[in-house]
Amino acid sequence: MPSLSDGDFYYYRNFYIDQPPQMAQVFYESLHVISFSLKIIFYFLERLSDVN
User: Fold this and answer.
1) Which of 1, 23, 24, 45 is the most exposed place for a label (fewest CB within 10 A)?
2) In total, how many domains does the chain have?
3) CA angle, 22 as apex, 26 and 16 as ends, to 5°?
4) Is residue 37 one of the residues assigned to a domain?
5) How far apart are CA 9 and CA 35, in angstroms?
6) In Å, what is the CA distance from 37 to each residue of 18, 28, 52?
7) Using CA of residue 4, residue 9, residue 13, residue 16, what is the dihedral sign?
8) Could you write out the three-class secondary structure of 21-42?
9) pLDDT (0 to 100) of residue 47
10) Where are the transmembrane segments (predicted)?
11) What is the C-alpha to C-alpha distance for residues 34 and 13, in angstroms, rounded to an integer?
12) Are 11 and 18 in contact (CB under 8 A)?
């Protein structure tokens, strides 16, 4: 594993400290995608159970 110099460490630390809104936005967008795909899956499962 490559070692980070102090400058790199502070860059990455400040990057993550300064970015909580963006990280939360990405998290919520992924939640929307997951829930949307789950809705599609359950829709097809209901249709399959209705056919039987």
Assistant:
1) 1
2) 1
3) 110
4) yes
5) 35
6) 31, 14, 23
7) negative
8) HHHHHHHHHHHHHHHHHHHHHH
9) 92
10) 26-45
11) 29
12) no
Q: Which residue range forms the structural domain that includes residue 33?
A: 20-51
Angle subtended at Cα 31 by Cα 28 and Cα 32, rounded to the nearest 5 degrees:
90
**pLDDT of 24-48, one tens digit each?**
788 888 899 999 999 999 999 999 9
Q: Which two tokens stand for residue 9?
A: 């460490």
Q: Is residue 43, in this structure, part of any structural domain at all?
A: yes
9 in a domain, yes or no? no
Is 0.70 topped by the overall pTM?
A: no
Q: How far apart are CA 29 and CA 11, in angstroms?
A: 26
29 domain residue, yes or no = yes
Residues 9-28 pLDDT 10s: 666 666 666 666 677 788 88
